[in-house]
Here is the input.
Amino acid sequence: MRITAAVSRAGAPAPVLEELELSEPRDDEILVRVVAAGICHTDLNSHIGLGMPVPKPAVLGHEGAGVVEQVGSAVGHLKVGDRVVISGGSCGNCPSCLAAKPSYCREAMPRSFGGRRSDGSTSLSKGDERVASHFFAQSSFATHCVANARGAVPIPEGVPLDVVAPMGCGVITGAGAVIEGLQLRPGQSIVVFGVGGVGLSAVMAAWVAGATTIVAVDTVAERNELALELGATHAIDAGAGDFMERFRAILPFGADFSFNTTTAASAFDAAVQVLAMQGVAGFVTRPREPWTPDMMAMLAHGRSVKGILGGSASPRLFIPKLVELWRQGRFPVEKMIARYDFADFGKAWHDCEAASVIKPVLLVGEE
Ligand SMILES: [Zn+2]
Ligand SMILES: [Zn+2]
Here is the structure.
């Protein structure tokens, strides 16, 4: 079928909307009419070739939500007309998949960044030109996408798809990290470095989970203010004054957890320094410059540093919980969303790059 998609071409400053051909879904896939799609920093990085390489041209997009239009013969949990949020791909058979930790699937990286199915085929083309598809098993910057069904999560009626679309990556990455990855318990404390979409999701999750001290750390005053509105008990402007001095005024003996969504080596240092005895520093990005952890400080305090992918959560188990929390008004994810018409893709992309909005969501089609 003919579709419109944002195509990433090597050297282009941003993806541009083009007409493409989309092939039929396979047995384990679904065809989704995309209603909304969030833009995540991994899309920005993959477009310019940072991090895991993605073959070009490619259609990116991995926070898609829409309506199922066709279902492969091997798909058991979905039917035509279902509303879904689409998360990443996984094999379903490796130890992590069997333990409901699909973000640590042995095939997670090729299934996310390989630009094709496991058999080497793509679902997208333009004339004779092959276009890489299946970015995070979906490539949802498009009016329709063929997605691996295993990562598609049914969404109940009455829950707006533009609100829940970012739950497929950014929101589960932050909220899952706190609840599943760090397993924060009521009465504990956490420091969140960087309160963009992932950090704010962590703040909301920490509040829901009963943390009694939630410290947001950012250089942007409006983001710190939003963090306070969404559950943070304190906020520190990372760009002003002695950070540790201000932190110790809040938690003299340190925090049970920190969660770092930034790439500054200084933040990785601070994320370890703020920890109490046996505290855990979770992180979701790499330091952009070489970083040498203070191993003695980690040893002397029994601290550890923990990488957390995809919130260490199963989207099909975890996203329905977030949706219910949203329905109850306890997880107001819409407060960090900025909506754009799909035709304004370039503006949404630019605003995401410039960090002038927190979570851009493209309105791709009617429900
Ligand atoms: Zn697997
Ligand atoms: Zn993402």
